[in-house]
Design a protein that fits this description.
The protein is of the alpha+beta class. It has two domains: 88 residues, Aspartate Aminotransferase, domain 1 (Alpha-Beta Complex), CATH 3.90.1150; 156 residues, no CATH class. Helices cover 30% and strands 35% of the residues. Strands 5, 6, 7, 8, 10, 11, 12 and 13 form an eight-stranded mixed beta sheet that branches. Helix 1 packs across helix 2 and helix 1 packs across helix 3.
Length: 267
């Protein structure tokens, strides 16, 4: 009999580790708290816990899946939130920012788009993120959302950014407008319980500026919603902080079910 794979460390254990690391280093009034990757197993050992098998998953969970521990949240000034940024190779820092995660608005109208997703892609999509990236690509949602002609260059691009460390861009597009201007478009895709994080947007934009000097980056985030809707965001940096430039919700619809009066009203 094949031995069952070990279960991952549960998120509440991740919270406990992050809480220990933060509180050991935090001083009242601090806006930045530095730590390193090796501090995670060190904290686990000090707490009598098993070392997480995937140290990167601890950081990922606190960025996209679960909230900071209550004791960490209690140190946040009004209107500010703690995030975890990369600050070099195997180095991280807690930083206070006005906005941590991007959540789709509930009062947005949906725009019906004829569904161009091949049925074989829907049948064999491997996970939420991969499925979302494929659906966005086949339905040309980047083109529709930005009003550009875009081309997918690479997905799951693993690279590094000076002063940040290793990153992974979910998908990278290049775009062209009617005047001939070029754009580099990093796409962040989130499905399931994961949420869009400003951390990934900041590091994606930083890499685009580093790699494609003189080409304007336009950072896009996509999120699966209920009822087959997809939320699309354009995010940018203003005064060193991430801001929402635009948000649209798209509903992929069979051609026979399109409301012809609605397609006219969209004008």
């Amino acid at each position: 009999m094949t031995e069952a794979a070990p279960l991952p460390t549960p998120p509440n254990a991740y919270q406990a580790l992050i809480e220990r690391i933060f509180l050991d280093r935090y001083t009242p009034g601090a806006t930045v708290v530095e730590f390193e990757r090796h501090d995670i197993p060190t904290a686990a050992e000090a707490m009598g816990r098993d070392r997480p098998k995937n140290l990167g998953d601890v950081i990922y969970a606190l960025r996209y899946r679960t909230s900071m521990p209550a004791s960490v949240l209690a140190t946040q000034p009004e209107g500010m939130e703690w995030i975890i940024e990369g600050s070099g190779r195997a180095r991280y820092r807690f930083c206070l920012v006005p906005l941590n995660r991007i959540v789709p608005r509930n009062d947005m109208a949906s725009i019906a788009i004829p569904d161009s997703t091949p049925e074989i892609i829907r049948a064999y999509a491997l996970d939420d993120e991969q499925a979302l990236l494929a659906i966005v690509r086949y339905n040309r949602l980047i083109d529709i959302f930005l009003g550009l002609t875009t081309y997918s260059l690479q997905n799951h691009l693993r690279t590094s950014v000076k002063g940040i460390g290793q990153i992974e861009i979910d998908e990278l597009y290049l775009g062209l407008d009617r005047h001939g201007c070029h754009y580099v478009i990093p796409v962040q895709a989130k499905g399931g319980t994961d949420q869009i994080s400003v951390v990934q947007t900041k590091q994606d934009i930083a890499w685009c500026r580093q790699r494609f000097e003189g080409v304007r980056p336009r950072a896009i985030s996509a999120q699966f919603m209920r009822d087959d809707k997809i939320a699309m965001f354009e995010l940018s940096i203003q005064d060193e902080q991430i801001v929402v430039v635009d948000e649209k919700h798209y509903l992929l619809t069979a051609a026979a079910q399109l409301d012809r009066s609605a397609t006219t009203a969209y004008r």
